[in-house]
Automatic annotation (TrEMBL):
GO molecular-function term, one example from the UniProt record: lyase activity
Reaction catalysed by this enzyme: (sulfur carrier)-H + L-cysteine = (sulfur carrier)-SH + L-alanine
Gene3D superfamilies: Aspartate Aminotransferase, domain 1 (3.90.1150.10), Type I PLP-dependent aspartate aminotransferase-like (Major domain) (3.40.640.10)
Biological process, per Gene Ontology: cysteine metabolic process
Domain Aminotransferase class V: 2-252
PANTHER family: CYSTEINE DESULFURASE
Any Pfam family matching the protein: Aminotran_5
E.C. number: 2.8.1.7
Protein name (database record): cysteine desulfurase
Obligatory cofactor(s): pyridoxal 5'-phosphate
UniProt entry keywords in alphabetical sequence: Cytoplasm, Lyase, Pyridoxal phosphate, Transferase
Organism: Klebsiella pneumoniae
Length: 264
């Protein structure tokens, strides 16, 4: 596990020492789902390859916020879920380098993933990627993901990224003016803002915001070790996307200021 600096960035100086002859895979997120930290993938991928390790990148929190070029990154595997990209639930994408797919055996059996089946000769697998897509496909999910990709491509990921970063800067500046608000994560981030209001539990703050018509997520965000790192039971998380506005940010700030007056 790569340790964190206080602002949520990786302690890059210790990473080389974490590799040993048994290291086979570096699994790393591109953007943190809690802090919004954007990790320096190019340097980490190059380092892993120097040590003979493959790299799997979790891009679920990145693909909707900026263009991704897996060839330029040089990663071996890249994964993301459709619902993070305005698509349906229940479907995702696994990119893998072709030469790796050709050497990998399937882990699950089902229709369409075999080439031949013989009682005497055994089974041979279909070519990649079909050997990894066993059974009846999620046809509706595939169509929905395709529509989402078309929609985002028409808008332009570069334009989306520019708008979201402008909105993020506005939100961070506005939230810093709220007394007793604790912000977690680096100054430069993508998509999310994690915070707590004084010593009040995130669930209480989130409940008040919900009553004001403001939706945030509260809890440990599937990241209990990170909560332990910051010595808190939970955090509030506001998510910013291409459809959010500065007016909505202002409503969040006003709601937090109102909660502070009510709870003290």
């Amino acid at each position: 596990m790569i340790p964190l600096n206080p602002d949520g960035t990786l302690q890059l100086d210790v990473v080389p020492g974490l590799f040993d002859p048994r290291t086979r895979l570096l699994a790393i997120t591109e953007v943190s789902n809690v802090l919004g930290t954007e990790n320096p993938l190019a340097a980490l991928i190059a380092l892993a390859h120097q040590h003979g390790a493959k790299v799997l990148v979790d891009g679920a929190q990145a693909v909707m916020h900026h263009p991704v070029d897996v060839q330029a990154l040089g990663c071996d595997f890249y994964v993301f879920s459709a619902h993070k990209l305005y698509g349906p639930t229940g479907i995702g994408v696994l990119y893998a380098r072709s030469e790796l797919l050709q050497t990998m055996a399937p882990w699950e059996g089902g229709g369409s993933m075999i080439a031949t089946v013989s009682l005497t000769e055994g089974t041979t697998w279909n070519q990649a990627p079909w050997r990894f897509e066993a059974g009846t496909p999620n046809t509706g999910g595939i169509i929905g993901l395709g529509a989402a990709l078309t929609y985002v491509s028409q808008l332009g990921l570069s334009q989306i990224a520019e708008y979201e970063q402008t909105l993020m800067r506005y939100a961070l500046d506005a939230l810093r003016a709220v007394p007793d608000l604790i912000l977690y994560g680096p100054a430069q981030r993508k998509g999310v803002i994690a915070f707590n209001l004084g010593q009040h539990h995130a669930y209480d703050v989130g409940s008040f915001l919900d009553n004001y018509g403001i939706a945030v997520r509260t809890g440990h965000h599937c990241a209990m070790p990170l909560m332990a790192r910051y010595q808190v039971p939970a955090m509030c998380r506001a998510s910013l996307a291409m459809y959010n506005t500065t007016e909505e940010v202002d409503r969040l700030v006003a709601g937090l200021q109102r909660i502070r007056k009510l709870l003290g």
